[in-house]
């Protein structure tokens, strides 16, 4: 008999009918599931292969070049030392714990037995971020696991589902500095290669967990002297530097008494001694923009704030546990960096003074490349203050270092303007000055090191190798910026011979001054009294920071590498800044900033990398209770709003072009 539906019913084959309908329901369910499955925000959205332990070569690091090519790191050269003991390959284990698809059955990059796979938890559309009455992080038990609809960079509707990064050090994860797989493959660490940037090919999409007991940071200016222990729970420096009084544990707080390796009588005494040694330094009027190399917990830069001098304090992420994290939690400008094989992310001829107090850099190493890099970023006529044992100790080893330093500084035409010993604190220092004329370079008996070629482009220090040559002086080398604060609004030296750009600069200054006073202060529902550390993600001429100069905050001005290079102008104005590519993670710890500002950044950004990855990075570096201010086109705001809401941030649109967001304490479970 022919099998047909009527015959089946006629012969009452009910088991067959029941099975048929079950199959029909199952197929329908599968089809619906495949068409509506959410996108895991910790999972890569393209078909490119993700790093696995079985195929470690599949994870290329992002190296020189803003197109994120897979070029090899420049080979190491000998001579440059850091003062650290060499690190064995076994210190860094292969595999990155922050990728969902990474195979980690028998491998633990952080500590034995640690669980490193992210936990998949979808975020609900409503804001469930909560904090207890004292600002301590709490978990909202009502958080559900529903996904949130968003729009990706191709205009496709997707569901965003967030996961939590896991592992013993996930709370302090910095993607481009904690890429263990890339670090293990390095052929050399002699020149601090393992402290440089090695970004994963695919940016992580998991969210950083909060330290247990995290609180809203201590407000400025109290934070300069004390911070919550639970926010940066790293006590090693307390013991490691106890004789130098860097930091002291006191109850629920870390206390910063102002000590340092060279500050036995306190940092204020040290700075006053510097002023007496060379009165022409003129903190805050002539010497406004300072670079502190190997800064420790940034007590030097913190003390200079009282003198209207602003300091870019930097140090590597090394065994001095969390020193830069301490600085940022204190509300002092700081960044993670190292003088290794690559240039610093600052423009030529930009800093008024560079300071090194026992900073553990062998300036004469590698043919003098480290000192030549300082020479590159120093403004003509700028000072280099070197407070180190070779200046004042008489044993043979220190004498040899001093002789080498004398020969190197003379070869690049630096002159000693002061050399002294402070008997009260038992430290000595020497102050060098960079020339303002090229005549010395031309009159050298030996052209070694040679002059560098003129750069073919600006922002030429991003992923650029160190060079053994002398950066040529600019056209107006003998000019110094106006005394502070007139320097902020006067025409920058960089624009003196660009009349069209000068006019644009003046209009930009007026524009931001008006915008800050009329819109940003008072109209955007931002509690500015809680804002100390600010990051301008697309700084332009620095007008946003300049207009906020009377607020008790500081701004890190970032010039994206694919935008016009205005960083020299920003630093001519007496402000701080650096280059960056927002397709990669920023060189800072999680929870570093109170406010992120992005003016017309995302429209250009989505042409080169994903919006979700950038938002993930913004969430990483923003503190709970912090703000994000976005000014952009309406269609761009429409794309980013659902992604931000999926993080449980409060989101509002003002005047159809200003997006105001506030981050809460919510984290996926």
What does this structure look like?
The chain has 669 residues and is α/β, with parallel strands linked by helices. Helix content is 23%, strand content 17%. The chain has 16 helices and 22 strands. The protein has helices at 5-10, 14-36, 180-184, 236-240, 267-277, 299-304, 323-329, 369-377, 396-411, 439-442, 499-523, 543-547, 567-572, 602-605, 611-621, 634-645, and strands at 39-40, 119-120, 148-151, 157-161, 163-164, 226-228, 248-250, 253-255, 289-293, 310-315, 334-336, 351-357, 378-387, 415-422, 427-433, 533-536, 554-560, 576-580, 593-599, 622-631, 650-654, 658-662. The strands form 5 sheets. A 7-stranded mixed β-sheet has the order 11-10-9-12-13-15-14. A 7-stranded mixed β-sheet has the order 18-17-16-19-20-22-21. The longest helix is centred in the last third of the chain and has 25 residues, at 499-523. The termini are far apart. Residues 33-134 and 136-146 have low confidence and may be disordered.
């Amino acid at each position: 008999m022919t099998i047909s539906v009527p015959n089946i019913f006629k012969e009452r084959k009910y088991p067959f009918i029941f099975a048929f309908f079950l199959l029909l329901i199952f197929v329908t369910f599968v089809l619906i599931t495949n068409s509506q499955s959410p996108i895991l925000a910790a999972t890569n959205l393209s078909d490119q292969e993700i790093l696995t332990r079985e195929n470690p070569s599949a994870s290329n690091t992002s190296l020189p070049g803003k197109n994120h090519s897979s070029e090899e790191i420049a080979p190491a050269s000998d001579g440059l030392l850091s003062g650290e003991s060499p690190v064995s390959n076994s210190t860094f284990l292969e595999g990155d714990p922050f990728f969902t698809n990474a195979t980690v059955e028998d491998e633990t990059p952080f500590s034995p037995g640690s669980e490193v796979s992210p936990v998949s938890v979808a975020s609900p559309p409503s804001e469930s971020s909560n904090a207890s009455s004292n600002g301590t992080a709490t978990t909202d038990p009502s958080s559900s696991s529903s996904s949130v609809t968003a729009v990706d960079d191709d205009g496709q509707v997707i569901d965003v589902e967030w996961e939590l990064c896991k592992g013993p050090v996930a709370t302090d994860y910095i993607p481009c500095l904690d890429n263990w797989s890339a670090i293990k493959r390095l052929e050399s660490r002699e020149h601090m290669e393992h402290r440089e940037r090695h970004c994963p090919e695919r940016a992580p999409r998991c969210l950083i967990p909060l330290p247990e007991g995290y609180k809203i940071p201590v407000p400025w200016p109290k934070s300069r002297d004390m911070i919550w222990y639970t926010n940066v729970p790293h006590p090693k420096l307390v013991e490691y530097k106890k004789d130098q009084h860097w930091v002291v544990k006191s109850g629920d707080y870390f206390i910063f008494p102002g000590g340092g390796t060279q500050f036995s009588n306190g940092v204020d005494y040290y700075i006053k001694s510097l002023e007496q040694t060379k009165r022409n330094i003129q903190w805050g009027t002539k010497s406004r923009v300072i670079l502190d190399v190997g800064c420790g917990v940034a007590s030097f830069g913190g003390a200079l704030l009282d003198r209207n001098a602003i300091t870019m304090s930097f140090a590597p992420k090394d065994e001095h546990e969390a020193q830069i994290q301490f600085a940022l939690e204190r509300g002092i400008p700081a960044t993670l960096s190292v003088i290794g094989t690559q240039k610093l992310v600052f423009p030529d001829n930009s800093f008024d003074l560079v300071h090194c107090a026992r900073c553990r850099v062998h300036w004469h190493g590698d043919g003098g490349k480290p000192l030549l890099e300082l020479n590159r970023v120093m403004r003509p006529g700028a000072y280099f203050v070197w407070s180190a044992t070779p200046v004042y100790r008489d044993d043979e080893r220190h004498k040899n270092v001093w002789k080498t330093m004398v020969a190197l500084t003379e070869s690049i035409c630096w002159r000693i303007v002061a050399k002294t010993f402070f008997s009260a604190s038992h430290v000595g220092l020497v102050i060098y000055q960079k020339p303002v004329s090229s005549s010395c370079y031309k009159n050298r008996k030996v052209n070694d090191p040679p002059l560098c070629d003129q750069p073919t482009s600006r922002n030429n220090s991003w992923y650029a190798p160190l060079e053994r040559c002398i950066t040529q002086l600019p056209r107006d080398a003998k000019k110094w910026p106006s005394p502070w604060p007139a320097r902020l609004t006067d025409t920058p030296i960089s624009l003196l011979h660009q009349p069209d750009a000068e006019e644009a600069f003046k209009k930009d200054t007026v524009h931001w001054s008006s915008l800050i006073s009329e819109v940003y202060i008072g109209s955007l529902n931002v509690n500015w009294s809680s804002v100390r550390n600010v990051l301008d993600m697309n700084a332009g001429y620095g007008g946003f920071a300049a207009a906020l100069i009377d607020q008790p905050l500081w701004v890190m001005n970032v010039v994206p590498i694919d935008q016009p290079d205005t960083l020299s102008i920003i630093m001519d104005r007496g402000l701080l800044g650096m280059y960056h590519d927002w397709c990669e993670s920023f060189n800072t710890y999680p929870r570093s900033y109170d406010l992120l500002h992005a003016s017309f950044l995302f429209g250009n950004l989505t042409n080169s990398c994903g919006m979700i990855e950038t938002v993930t990075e913004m969430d990483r570096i923003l503190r709970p209770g912090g703000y994000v201010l976005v000014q952009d086109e309406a269609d761009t705001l429409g794309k980013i709003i659902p992604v931000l809401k999926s993080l449980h941030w409060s989101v509002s649109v003002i005047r159809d072009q200003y997006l105001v967001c506030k981050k809460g304490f919510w984290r996926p479970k």
